[in-house]
Amino acid sequence: MIPDDSQSRYFTSNPTPKALSKHEALVREFVDYHVSTNPNTRIALVTSGGTTVPLENQTVRFIDNFSAGTRGATSAEYFLREGYAVIFLHRQYSLLPYSRHFSHSTNCFLDFMDESGDGEVVVRQEYQQKMRRVLEEYQYAKKNRLLLLLPFTTITEYLFELRSLATLLQPLDSRALFYLAAAVSDFFIPRERMNEHKIQSSEVENGKKSGDGKQLVVNLDPVPKFLTTLVSQWAPRGSMIVSFKLETDPSLLVSKAEQALEKYGHDLVIGNLLTTRKWEVVFVTKGGQERWVRVPKAKRSRSVSGIEELVGRAEKNKPSDEEVDLSGGEVHEGLEIESLIIPELAVLHQERINNGSQRA
Ligand code: 9Z3
């Protein structure tokens, strides 16, 4: 597929992120290190978290989305368990692999600690085991230089970073895997139309609706479909590319995922619904295959925003009652769905490496 002009215009008319050259140097070093120490090394580029859309160049206000980076941070840990080195391209201040266990607002790290009585700060007894396991995995990744953390904030920073990083992964060929879990904005304000300074309430247009007759009208342009160019130009030819499709309407999910796969011609689209994403996803691959990955009912974590009744609703061929099991059941410590997704991807990726298959 030939990328349209909007792609190249995007990169010439929007500013290069300040951190880009530093990030490029880090990635070069990371790739060189892993390629030279292990010729069979596999590197996963995991993108994670939301992208902001600034309304002003000196940004006071911006449009954002819901993503906390749970999918990305959790998946990165399971990729590391599968033996991958991971580049974690994440929204700054979103969840990070390992520290995510203790940094969430409902998992405040201070609640894991106590005073010992003799002046020491210690980990509370009930958390010792979990914290030791997480700490061991974290230290292993650190010692072996397996995890590279690169932050971004805006949609433009994200796209510049993705383009550079994909190109720098060329030496990996089929041993590179792209796992695009970041929630990427579809709309943005181009640099030439963006206010330099904070938008003043006194400057907004006279409109018809609000109390004092004023409205802030924001015109957003569509973000160019970067996946097209990632697949056809930036990414190594033999690499595996996995994108995510997020929907809220169960009746659209599978068809939208199929359309994305058809349009971009990559390897796999993982579809998920906003309200059930922690318990089920659908793998959509070439040839219209739809395969659901679900956490069994009894192992589902509780979720404030999730709607468990919607599990199974997006499936074209409705699952049997037994599979969906809406009858209730004891809830154990939740099984993370990423622990099911990532080992499957590792198998698919290995097959691809072994077969030397390439995208058309
Ligand atoms: C996803 O669908 C992710 O699974 C979530 C994860 C964002 C839902 P959380 O961070 O949520 O764990 O809270 N990500 C990709 C959504 C997306 O923006 N896809 C685009 C598209 O479908 C670009 S690949 O067009």
TrEMBL record:
Domain DNA/pantothenate metabolism flavoprotein C-terminal positions: 172-300
Keyword Ligase assigned: yes
InterPro entries: CoaB-like_sf (IPR035929), DNA/pantothenate-metab_flavo_C (IPR007085)
Key words, A-Z: Ligase
Broad class of enzyme this protein falls into: ligase
E.C. no: 6.3.2.51
MF GO annotations: ligase activity
Pfam families: DFP
Entry-linked PANTHER family: CORNICHON-RELATED
Family: Belongs to the PPC synthetase family.
Protein name per Swiss-Prot or TrEMBL: Phosphopantothenate--cysteine ligase cab2
Organism listed in the record: Knufia obscura
